[in-house]
Amino acid sequence: MKDFGRAVSVDRQTTAGAVDRVRLDYDGRFLRRKRLATAGGGSVVVDLAETTSLDDGDALVLEDGGRIAVEAAAEPLLEIRGENLVRLAWHIGNRHTPCRIEADRLLIRDDHVLADMVRKLGGVVAPVSAPFSPEGGAYGHGRTMGHDHGPDHTHAHSDDHAHE
Questions:
Q1: Which of 1, 30, 33, 138 is deepest in the core (most CB within 10 A)?
Q2: H-helix or E-strand containing 108?
Q3: Residue numbers of the domain that contains 15
């Protein structure tokens, strides 16, 4: 088993010359410090300065300059199709749910409550297994993290509101 040492930064431009790869689901690609098993049977300790959302195609940069490619792993998702995807996307977004938006479908993580809501709105829901790389959000790339947009951000409504 090869120990690749520490990965200390992320290269979002290229995985060229990668010595191995890690395959991680959506939750697994949000990390700061963690030991990971590589596809080739090795290990690497991710030791980043701050918690980072890794994307499919990123590279973890090792202390010696080597690279470990990041791949998004397949996971259980819901595929949503329907006559009015814009309306369905609005309702999903109103629940602050990570969503991948494509021309003819939406992909969200498996959630029976949201599946029921989408069906009631006329959408067609089917389980699929695929890598999940949702939209990054309006306030920069990365993950949407609920309602905390920082100390200088305000809403026209209170932050303790309900989404019904």
A1: 30
A2: strand 106-109
A3: 3-72
